[in-house]
Amino acid sequence: MARDVSLLQRVSHPMRNVGQEKCSSHRNYLLVDAHVARSITVDPTWMLRQQMTAGGIWETSESSLSFAWLVVKGNIVLTQDNVTVDASSGCVCFGPLSAGRSLVVESDAEWLSFGFRLSLYGRTDFLDHYRLPLCVFPDAVDRARLERWLLDLLAAWDDQTAAATFVRTGLAQAVFGSVFALLEREQGSRLLATGAMPEVLQLLQADPRISVSELARSTGYSPAQFRREFHRWTGQAPHAFVSSYRLAEAKQRLVSGTDLIASIALDLGFESLSHFTRLFRDTYGIPPARYRQMRHTGELER
């Protein structure tokens, strides 16, 4: 079957950061779809309710962490990476700490501060495309939801039980999801990715049937270089990653559509229905037909 050769072209777009060039004028970007989003990990590191009186000054050093604030009252001037923003009551601020930051409190202020480590395929630099720090004013519904999640996270922070750990992990994902929705609204849904990953994942997203050898050729790397670069980004060998991607896509199609299971298997590049069934059962514990049935009857939620 013919393949759109335009998919093999390197994806590049100009990037600027509030009047300042951070790096080269062309970068590689990765469109965020559901599969990419599932590969973003959020590791919570602090949750605080912070207060400071007018005139207070605070500086932090560089780190690989990110932060999200919800300003409850007062006004804060935040400076990071030569960008200065005013954060007043109701404002949500988000950014990495890769360049450190300083803040000056202009009036008595209180804010909820969430710190976390973000990574995509083990990398912590994938937000470099965005103009950060971002400070936006969500609507009343979004703000109330985010404040509730942050307060719940604060309440569960010091509880070391297994249940509280699950709660913290879930709330951390929810808070970042809410903040990322604001980031998407302001700046779109492209993440910076270096090397071969933008082409590789966009090709795989466009056509899950694509072979690993075709993916390797699209990068211009030798087979050995491709395997090293791919593993460096994903922590997996190319064949294992492609197989897991196809299986995840199959799960979605089994529930959202009515296609025959054999058609789904062939459309996603599996060698045969029996091959697909065996891999699906080995991975998820039940065969695809049973998975579809249990999802439709409500026996299995997800």
Helix-strand category: alpha+beta
Task: Kindly identify the CATH topology of the largest domain.
Answer: Jelly Rolls
Number of domains: 2
CATH class label of the largest domain: Mainly Beta
Q: How many helical stretches? A: 10
Q: How many runs of DSSP E, i.e. beta strands?
A: 10
Order of helices and strands: EEHEEEEEEEHHEHHHHHHH
Please provide a written account of the structure.
Helices cover 42% and strands 26% of the residues. The radius of gyration is 22 Å and the shape is globular. It folds into two domains: 34-190, Sandwich (Jelly Rolls), CATH 2.60.120.280; 197-297, Arc Repressor Mutant, subunit A (Orthogonal Bundle). It has ten helices and ten strands. It is an alpha+beta fold and 302 residues long. The protein has helices at 34-38, 140-156, 162-187, 197-206, 212-219, 223-234, 238-256, 261-267, 273-284, 288-297; strands spanning 12-14, 26-31, 40-52, 57-60, 66-80, 83-88, 92-96, 101-120, 134-136, 190-192. Helix 2 packs antiparallel against helix 3 and helix 4 runs antiparallel to helix 5 (212-219). Mean pLDDT is 81; it is low at 1-26. The strands form two sheets. Strands 3, 4, 5, 6, 7, 8 and 9 form a seven-stranded antiparallel sheet that branches.
